[in-house]
Structure formats: C-alpha cells, structure tokens
Amino acid sequence: MTTTLARGPAPTAPAAGRAARVRPALAWGAAVAVPVLFLGVFFVQPVAEIVGRGFVTDGRLDLSGFAEVFARPRTWRVVGQTLVQAALGTAGAVLLGVPGAYVLYRCRFPGRGALRAFVTVPFVLPTVVVGVAFRSLLVDGGLLGGLGLDGTVTAIVLALVFFNYAVVVRTVGGMWERLDERTEQAARALGASPWRVLTTVTLPALGPAIASAASLVFLFCATAFGTVLVLGGRRYGTVETEIWIQTTQFLDLRAAAVLSVVQLVVVAAALTVAGRARARTERALSVGGPAAAHPVRLREPLDAVAVAVTAVAVLGLLALPLVNLVVRSLRTPRGWGLDNYAALAVPQDTLAVSAWHAAGTSLRTATDATVIALVVGGLVALVVSRRPRGTAARRAVGGLDALFMLPLGVSAVTVGFGFLVAMDAPLGLPVDLRTSPALVAVAQAVVAVPLVVRTVLPVLRAIDPRQREVAATLGAPPGRVLRTVDLAVAARAVGLALGFAFAASLGEFGATSFLARPQEPTLPVVIFRLLGRPGAENYGAALAASVLLAALTAGIVAVCERLRRPGIGGAW
What we know:
With about 575 residues, the chain is an all-alpha fold.
C-alpha cells in the first residue's frame, strides 16, 4: 500500500521571484539603516544638541552669537593660528612624505616591511603621547632643550608633521606602488632626464594621491587636540582646543557652538577636496599585483636625495622623540632606574586608580569600540563600494560616504560634551545612558568608524564587478556572492581595519576626557592628569605611562601591517 504525505502547495514562480527580489532589498536596506541610525543617534544628535544650545534662546533661533564671537580679537587669533599651523604641518608632511613614499614603496631593500610598520606607528599614537614625547625632547633638560623651541609654534608644527607623515607615505606610496613604469621608461628613452621624468610624468600621475593626502593631513592638523593642548596650551591654541576651553572653563556654549560651525565648514571643504582626489586615486587601483620594486640606486641623484630625506625624517623626526621618551622615562630623581614604571602600579596623588588599572580599562573599552566600529564601518564600506547605474543612487552613495567621514573632522570635544547633554534620553527613550560605562566605547567607535571605512573601502571598490556577475550567473545567491567574492577579497583589509580601529580607540582623548568616570579613567586621561600635577614623580609617571601606551599601539600596528594587501589599502 502506498502512503501519500500531504504537502502544501508549491510556491508559484512569480511568488518565488518576488521573494528572491525582496530579501536582498531588505538586506541592503538594513545595511544602510543600521549605520545611519548609529550616526544619527550618537553623532548628529549630540552635535546638534550642543550647536542648538548655543544658538537657541528662549525657544527662538538666535544667530547674534556669530557677531559676538567674531568681534573678539581672540577668535580671529585662534582661527588664524589654526589655519597657519595646519598649512605648515601639511606642507612639511608632503615635502617629507613624498620622498618617503618612493623609498618605501618603489625601492627594495632589507627591512622595508619593518620600516613601513615603524613609519605608521606615529599616526596611531595617542595625541597626548605625541605631545608628551615632543615636550620631553624640547623642554629644559631635554635633548634639544637648548634650542628654545618648547612652547613655540615650531614645536607644534613638528609634532603635527610627526603625526601625519604616515598619511602621506601610505596614501602616495599605495598609488606609486602601482604606477606603470613603461610611461617613465618611454620618457627616458626619448632623452628626458630623471628630474624631468619626475616632474612631467610621475608627479602628475601621483597628483590625485598627493591631493588626497594633503587634504586629509590639513584636516587632521586643523582638528588636532591633545598634541596642541600639551605643547601650546592657551597661547597657541586652535579652534579645537578653544572649543574645549570655552566649554570646560568658561561654560560659554554660544562661543563653542560658533567655533564648532566654523570648524565644520573647514572640515567640509577639506573632505570635499579629499573625496574628489580619492575617487580619482581609487579608479587607478585594481586587485592585481603591484609593480616590481627596484633596488636603491644611490648613484642616481634622485634616489640619493630621496634616501637622504627619508633618513632625516625617520631618524630625526620620528625616531628621536620616541627614543627620547623612553630614555627620559628611565630617569628618576635618584638616577636611572624603573621607578617611574613601578609607580604605575599605585595611584598618583589624587588619582582614584593606578595607571595599570587605567590601561586595563582602556583595553576593555577599545575592544568594545572596535567591535562596534567594525560592524558599522563594514556595512558602510559594503554599501558605498557599490556602483549603481542611476544618477540619484550614485549621489546617495557618495553622500553616505561623505557623511561617515564627518566624525574625523568634527571636534571630539563637541561630541563628548554633546553626549553628556543629549544621552539622558536618546530618541525620547526613558533611558539615561550617561551613567553607562558603554558610552565611552560608543564615543570611541564614532571616531574609529571612518578609519574602518577608509581601510576597507578601497579594497571593495577595486573588485571587478564582473566577478560578482559571474558568481551570480553560476547560480550563487546574493549572500553567497557576498561571502565568496567581497568578504574573501577584503578579509585582510578587515583585519587591518580592526587593528587601526583598536589603536585609535585606545588613544582617543577628546571625547573620552568628558565621558570617563573618575573611577574608570582611560590611560590617555591619566597621562593628561599626571602632566597637570606638579612634581617630578608625576611627570616621570606620565612619561612611563606614555611609553606603555605607545608600546601597545606600536605592537598593534606591527601586526596589522603584515595584513596589508600590497598596493591596496594604503590610503585613508
């Protein structure tokens, strides 16, 4: 006897087709909605709250603050100092970084990989550590204390170049690594000198990468906080430090709001230039291998000049402050020793916790922030990497890319203070997040998301769309195409993004200085507090804590540099 099992009616072909179309649409909708919701709640809302409190009086919009703030001579002085310092820092980083990009990405020599990793370390160092390193070098009693540079604009500019040198090297080097040498060889065959080949062939081809690097460096210099605060104080402050001073010391939210708007205009201009230049750079990238590097040819004048400039930059600008920081941390009032490091195990003066406890807090918070940044930034990179055919869709994708770059330039001080003001009831929910320790991790994630996007996005955009089309033609569903094509290619870039996000979160200071509770400060906050207390013991402990924080970030970068795919992912 044959038994027949009852089954429901099979789905019709149109119904199955609709389901196949609806599911990917819902997935892409969620991929857009999650990052936009995150940015809206944890970035747009806090910033809008601070700006609104500065411009809204008795429920009405009041823009008289602009005239009031710009009538102050101090405002014009701060804005001028910001632009001058950013311009000088950008010029120095480009002039030193382009030769470094050539040596590290087009030349072959033993130890090149290790040198690349070392050059990248300053960019992810906490800004407070950079300030401490240069201050210990230039202060009276320091190795270069006799030059009288402590507390000067020169010290600030040198520190800004130190911090941003890697941006130029990696951005320009990633492009230079992929240039087709045949154009240069043809020019030389026609009798052009090496200098003429460089100026008429190579540098024009690198123009988009150089413009992208310069605009990003200008952005980072104009929004520098910890470095300028440690080295310049109120005398040589920038818009960023002035926002902090007006907010924390004078409680002048109107002045802080006006300065935040000014900074936002500068940031938007820099991001526009960077975005256009970066788009031209990314169009030249592909997933193929880089051009063959050649041995260093010191007999050629251009190679000799590039090596000399790179040696001065690496040894004099990058290595000297870091080595001096380590040496000074070993000097104590009783002679050489590890007393400063031993002091990290006990709270100093009025600090509630020890530096080692703060280091543990920093590691835990950075881990949480990295997870959040990877999820949000990965979704943004995935969506923005697509090339829709419609004009409106392309503009929407470009707008989303620019939107998630804004946290790089908007004052972290504004974000941190905005969290304190706006997170009592986000989205009208009866939840006060200001008492949650997770708020520090969220603030750090807001800062780290753009780094994740900029690290993963070039790799995803370099994928030939025909690879996805072939996989789909062979019957792979959209989810499988995503796993076998996009994620497989971008796996190394995701690991690199993880490291950069972790390092950036570990050293974040601007927003964390507002949000960290006295019982759970992070290591950068402890370092800044130690610097503000008199006494050789506090200063020595600050140096030792800076070395500890620098070692943590350097180790992370060294591991991440090994994950970088040659020729891709070098641009931020």
